[in-house]
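Risk mitigation, structural track. In case the binding assays with arginine fail to produce interpretable data, a predicted complex structure has been prepared as a fallback.
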Amino acid sequence: MGRAKKVVLAYSGGVDTSVCIPYLAKEWGVQEIITFAADLGQGDELEPIRKKALQAGASQSLVGNLVEPFINEFAFPSIRANALYQGRYPLSTALARPLIARELVKIAREVGADGVAHGCTGKGNDQIRFDVAIASLAPDLKVLTPAREWGMSREETIAYGERYGMPAPVSKKSPYSIDLNLLGRSIEAGSLEDPMIPPPEEVFAMTSSIENAPSEGQEIEIAFEEGKPVAINGRSLDPVKLIQTANELAGKHGFGRLDIIEDRVVGIKSREIYETPGLSLLILAHQELESLTLSADVLRTKFQLERQWSDLVYQGFWFGPLKNAIDGFIDRTQVHVNGLVKLKLQKGNAKIIGRSSSNNSLYIPNMATYGKDDKFEHKSAEGFIYIWGLPNRLWASITNNKI
Ligand code: ARG
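Fallback model:
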């Protein structure tokens, strides 16, 4: 592991990233440490975090609001890709990492750093996403990862911090490990490590329980243009406001909770609780509009590529060539994804109850109808089916399938 002289450290204000500052300086001889804390809509106050880095020994402490690019460049493409890792997890944490990595690299270039650093441990996915993203954007930069190498327990880490004047975290010591941003919250550890123990209500913050959700449901309408959500209930909203509104609506009705066992890149199965109300709602609505506006063959192919896109993003390949090529396919399909989806939110459910598209609907009424306007050529079905079934006729002629 090559060391660096001047390093930009991804900083959250937590114990691990704070201890990284004296550790990099004292143990690894880094001369200058610049920290960067990102606002991704997680609702943390950034000013105390900025100060904390300086107290811990950073030479410069930067904060940046990345909410807008987070939604525009990362969340919206994931909606267009209907991205669900292993068919279920909407990637709320995974989508944030390449953006933070890109920002670290930009800052490193501005300040002339020769390395970047993060506080991820060796067991998780996030280290992979940071390291691979950084390698894709700036292969020359060194990546310093103290928490992967120091081998300290949490208690030892806190004690190490105290030696350099960092007060131990006092208040409400939550047993959970929580990652959050505007798209959702990922919660693990504590009692959740027993996969048979249900998540206690206290772990949730964005969604109501089914019990507390209002019993009367609520109908909503989401409009899409080129696969991007643009309005809710007839009100045009900018991307950030749109996600916030979707979070509030779905959260209020208890939609968007997930309790899964997932497969990490490093081979571990882990149990994670997610709440991603708005993102889950928008993906559901988007899938529905695609079923109306995309042809069957495009849908079938896109479905396979969506799985691959989700795997690539989960596994850290946001900036890779395959993800880039699949984006090209998705972009081409989304030109047609314009229209409205109507849903009913109620007691933990989001049920599709309608969809329409004025220019792109492939639902042709006089083909679909059973009424008098039916224009489908029923007679043609006979010849079609004769040829469609011909392989089986031929097979039957030489086997004993016949009864
Ligand atoms: N398992 C998720 C992922 O890899 C989220 C991990 C977030 N961290 C946490 N402390 N819960 O994207």
